[in-house]
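Morning. Coffee machine broken again, so started the prediction first thing and wrote up yesterday's gels while waiting. Chain of 238 residues, entered below exactly as on the submission form.
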Amino acid sequence: MTWHRGIVMVLCAVLVGSVMAVCVMGQAAVSTQPAGAATTQSGLEAIHADLMRIMKEFQELLPSPVMIGDAQFRKENGAKLAPALMKLANQYGELVATQKGEIKERLETGRFSMLGYAMALGDKDAEKMLTEAAAGKNAKLALEAKSVMALMNWATNLEDAKALQKVLDDYVVVVKANPEDETVARTLMWMMQLAHANKNKEMFEKVAKVFETELKGEIVEGFREMSGRPKEKANAKK
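Came back before lunch.
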């Protein structure tokens, strides 16, 4: 398996996992409710149903998230899709307000994804919300917001080498501060996939170098193994 082909396969798996993670979390919460908690269980089941509906609508709007890197697609569909994505983000927000702990954070992450795509399609309110979250006190959510914004800025500047270099340079600061984080690894993988899809070998290699030299830990090793990247080329910091 080649490194490029491996990345595509890994990203397919990551995408499915990312899209369904919140729904799975909601279903898990439902299945682990103690006996006698009928009201709570009913509420969680309703949340799970809402999440499935939202994700179905999202997949209908963007069958492949890679489409967001296509300037022509954004130009032709931005005015129509951005409001629809903001509507879904607001529905996520309503669910967020009802939850606590890990489920709340998972829901917030899903909301950030919707806001990110809306931002890429030109919605300024979405960009403002993500900017505020990126500067927030919740470190985990701030990292998610920074990663979403970096990825969307990358996707919308694929034809501008100077802009891409700035996005990467800025995100490297985040990578260095979070070398074992799955969100960071996933974001770099998506950057590579978008560069590859745009036949930008130079930027692909630059992101690959960051991936190889800055990330570490079991999460990254798993990505490496799935992608088929030759072990001898790894220079990850120990």
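Confidence is low (pLDDT under 50) at residues 7-39, 232-238. Going to sketch it on the whiteboard this afternoon.
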